[in-house]
Amino acid sequence: MAVVCVRSTWNALSPRLSCDTRPLILKALSELFSLVPSLAVNTAEYEDPIVASAAYKSLSPFSSGEHTVLHLPEKIRPEMPVPDELEEEEAVDLSIPGPCYLRLLTITAPSVLPALEEFFTSLVKQEMVNMPRGIYHSALKGGIRSDQGKTVAGIPNFILKMYETNKQPGLKPGLAGGMLFCYDVAMYQSKDGKPLNRLMASRGRSFKQTSLALVHEVHVQPSEWHRALFLPQAWLAYMTRAYHAVLQGRIAELELQLQHGKEGPEEVQYKRSTAWLWVRDMLTDEITKTAAKESPVVKGNALLALSSLAVVVSKHEASLSSDSDGVLEVQPNFLPVKEWVSMVLNTLLVIVDSHYHPRGQLFSCFYHKSYSGENTASAIARSAAATALSLLVPVFITSCKEKVEEILNMLTARLPGKPSADESQAVQIHMGLALGMFLSRLCEEKLSDMSGQQMNLLLIKSLDALENCCFDPSLEHNTGCVLGVGLALSLMSHSSHTESRVHVAASLRKLSTYLDDSGSQSRTFQEVLAYTLSCVCTSAFSAGIIEAVEAEDIMNKLQLLVESNQQTSGFALALGNLVHGLSVCGHGKAEDLGNRLLPNWIRVVLAEGSSTMLCLAALHGLVALVGSDVDVMQLKSEAIQSAHSQARLNEVIRTLTELVQHSNKPVGQCLRLKPSWLLAYPEEVIGLELIAVLVRQGGRFLHPFTGVTARSWLARQASAWRRDAQVDPSRCCWGAPLLEAALQPAAAGFKTAGPEAVPPSLLKVVMKPIATVGESYQYPPVNLAALLSPLMRLNFGEEIQQLCLEIAVTQAPSSQSAAALLGLWVMPPLIHGLSTNIKKYLLVSLPLWVKHVSDEQVQSFVENLMVAVFKAASPPSHPELCLSALQGLSQAMKLPSPSHNLWSLLCDATGRIFDLLPNRIRRSDLELYISVAKCLSEMTDGGASQHSQITQDNIEKAAFVKLYLVSQGRLPLMSLMDLIMAAMQHREKQTLAWMILHCLYQARIVSHANTGVLKRLEWLLELMGYMRNLGYQPAPDQTVALHEALDFLLLIFAAAVMVWADHEAPLLLGLSASWLPWHRENGASGPAAALLGRSPMHRVTVQEVFTFLPSSMLLLLQKEPWKEQTQKFIDWLFSIMEIPNEAFAAKSKDLLKATLLSLRVLPEFKKKAVWTRAYGW
């Protein structure tokens, strides 16, 4: 007999022969085993897909720590280090590395992949549950850990070190400017992720000391136009960090006092709750005391610091109000924030306008009284106060919008050439700049979208005045006006108003022509004009106002200026700014020019024979070329920085730091030697602008991850995690590296290999766990945009695209890069390439991401998808998309504390969708109208009424929406009277009567204060009174026959009595507690049957209401509180029955008489006067 299975043979012999050591036995066994190759068969039952799937699914519910892997297939095994190469004290890490998971995919059968996906999801979820809290903080605060990141992350320490070790007083101002942008102190945490109170308190004290130092040392020079552009925002950024650091330090000190027993729990609790006000007053005292005795420069810095503090405190108060449902406890020992902010504002206005008469208190340390009784201050203080007003724009819009007009008029009246213009040249320059800053911030806050016509006219008037000063060649000292025009037009470019975009295009061409004709102007004026032109041109191209050809012409014009004036810093700054802005917006020729300019300018800076002026111009061009001034324009460009852009930034930074540290050239020694002939070029070239390169780009390069850095960081975190967890070296376990492995495909090759090399089915197994777990957990701060963007663009299929967007949506609240990626894909042209299922997901998930992308992106999404799906056809051709749009919209409108602009967008979208819906309601589309009603219910009563006004063209859908809101208690029953009056004029009264019938029945079922029995009684009495008045005193403008109006009102009265009397009659007529079942019923076919309220069954239901009126009236008047009004009902029946025959049909009178006689069992009817009158005796 042939042996077919060696394994079964050995199983039978092994108990006796496995331990036998006799030579002959061993020889025979060897010969037996030699037959194995010739008898080999495929008996790998463990590879059966059913077995493998069951194994993965059974492992999923277990904790990863309970998995002990005894065997790994050879193809996926990690490379183990040779024992001799290991250090003696280093423990062997036997956990499964991330790449093993990917190799496991390649040897897994396709039918097993769903089970493997479920297993991966389980492991990723466990990793997120067990993720140490400190990982998030250390990732965000630890700086960048890649070669690219180290270049950027080292700059704050570089500036701080130079600031602390500098021994020459003359160098302090420039270094202090850099400190203003970047100073911060690391936050330390214990092993459990909690901050250390002692170190937090020390951090707060460090910020307090540094704040006072910077007020003294930051350089404020009115003639430095480029520094003046960014100094207010720099102070705002610093005071934001300082305020919160000091606040955290104050809370930490209180915790320490509680721990040491120096304060009681109640006292500490009170001081904790008022710590934010205590810090405000402490910083205010320090700033004002410093300003009281010091120089004009200190007063200027103090004004900027105090104004910034006002903005920060107002935002902090708003956040506290949202956390406490809008109610903040009044603190008697502290001045209310509104009054304190008013003091700051009044102080600024008094300094700007010496004739200003404030109504409240002031900080008098910033000015003094002259002999004539006026409030006077230095030119620097007046300049700083004017520019500081722009910082307070968000405060004005939220709490005192009336101040906007006052400030605009004040600044406009002090422009150069005006009768009230200041005598100081520097102040005239700063007034123009301040007005431009103020207008730009108003544009940024979308004031024109939320204000009336009068405010919009004022904004246009102020901008016209500013432009008139800018383009007036006879004026002197109007460089500030030129800069102000540039700021205002740059922000106006992003407006959605056509007239604003047309104005920007016209002004841009005017600026270009003005630059051509500016040969007779001063060199400084030409530099400012060139810089302004670069800003406006970049913003206009970014917003699509001008074409690439026009932008290229302006770029060539600036390039010629730079080539013919190589030692002029302003021209180089303008060209670098324009080239950078156009490049990030996709202008190919600008990218090519940037690649040529960068090495040329670096060569000039590092060359030993270059003149100082030439080097300074090249330095200005370099920093602008990598985006130092990008915040002026707020470009609508892709926020995901390419590796090329990051490399360019790193190269510029290395050049500047090398120049400062090692160069012997005068320009390189300006921070150390500062010769007098360099006084015209302040240290902002290195100290201020270098840091501004980082800060003005919104911290993009200070993000912990760039490109594939996420994988290496996660690998280090996983390794550290395993070491901290003291993994048992006797076994391998599934563990922390899976998150790294899940992100690795996108970072290591999937994003470049494409679907030809990596099947989408395998990629789905990797991406699905991340998307699923991401719905419930916040991932570590990975640069998700850099990982997901390639997968979105390559042809991996619809499913991978949707998974990527799901990850972006769920992580957008905590990841700026995810929000940036999402913002690109919700706008054209990318959104048009998405599938229907993905669009449906984006619509439904709107509430998850709408607050984390820009208002422009939300508006584009609304225009191009949300509203567009309703424009496609009538009835809608994609009802599933329409319903998803309304579901997402209604949920988004429920979000707490949306911005004014966002709320306006959502309300406007609701109104437009309502207008696009057909007036006649198809029963299959009924859910769309209900969803629109839910959206309207989130608005105020006035807003809902404005967007759903009833006209003869939309009466059916408007009536349905209003009736739905009434039936749910959202609107009072009394609001039905206007609808009923409009319905009487409509030719399809039966359709509206059917809707009203259902509304009244559902109002009885819904438990709400507006639909209670007393409210229903009140409304029915109001209807009865209106009907009686109409019968005896018809309205002079009545357009419908009186008998038709009375019959309709009687029908509504009968419907209310029938549905409110009991539940039997409504059920017999087929009424339901929900609107929705009716559009699914099987009834008569035909166009009319498909419309709500128009089928034969619906018409029969309405007519049968009269049949139930007599019996229902008796049932109703036997209940409380209706029985108390029985006499009123009887009197009303008599009065209606006695209406002249020509005004009321005999059939209706007979019905009312039958109703009256049905009440004969009631005590009120048994009165002789009543029953004799009823029977006609």
From TrEMBL:
It comes from the Eukaryota. InterPro entries: ARM-type_fold, FOCAD/RST1_DUF3730, Focadhesin/RST1, Focadhesin_C. Residues 555-664, 753-1177 form the Focadhesin C-terminal domain. One of its GO terms (biological process) is regulation of post-transcriptional gene silencing. Residues 3-48 form the DUF3730 domain. PANTHER family: FOCADHESIN, FOCADHESIN FAMILY MEMBER. This is Focadhesin. It comes from Myodes glareolus (Bank vole).
